[in-house]
Design goal:
With 140 residues, this protein is mainly alpha-helical. 84% of the residues lie in helices and 0% in strands.
Length: 140
């Protein structure tokens, strides 16, 4: 089954590169593939990139949040796609989103880039408190 997904993704990527107006068809194909395997990270990631190509960042953000739970590595790649897309839209204001929407998306990207550091800091804090509790009890 994995090989079928890989083959389909490759074919879709080729079609999109050759003719960008097929993004709607690409979305339909990814939706269908996700009905077969709803937790297939690459399909979620590439569908989100298609959402971006269609100027649908809110749909892409929803996909990112789901992907982050399933595959943090793929989510990181998608976040890079968000950054690239954002820069392209800033350079081409006629692309359909206003400056405020772009600024909000930039902030959202920044907040998700810092998340792993915050999680590590929280874990380190929790770990140090746990260690201190163990040491306190060991001394009794």
């Amino acid at each position: 089954m994995q090989a079928q997904f890989e083959k389909m993704i490759s074919a879709l990527e080729t079609a999109v590169r050759n003719n960008p107006r097929y993004y709607e068809a690409v979305l339909t194909a990814y939706d269908r593939s996700l009905t077969l395997n709803p937790n297939y990270p690459e399909a979620i990631e590439y569908r989100a990139e298609a959402y971006l190509a269609l100027n649908r960042p809110s749909d892409a953000r929803s996909a990112y949040l789901r992907l982050k739970l399933l595959s943090p590595e793929n989510a990181d790649e998608l976040l890079e796609a968000f950054s690239t897309w954002l820069e392209e839209r800033r350079q081409n204001p006629a692309a359909g989103l206003d400056a405020l929407e772009l600024d909000q998306l930039a902030e959202w990207i920044r907040s998700h880039r810092s998340t792993p550091r915050l999680q590590l800091a929280r874990r380190a804090n929790l770990g140090s408190r746990l260690l201190q509790t163990v040491l306190d009890h060991a001394g009794n």
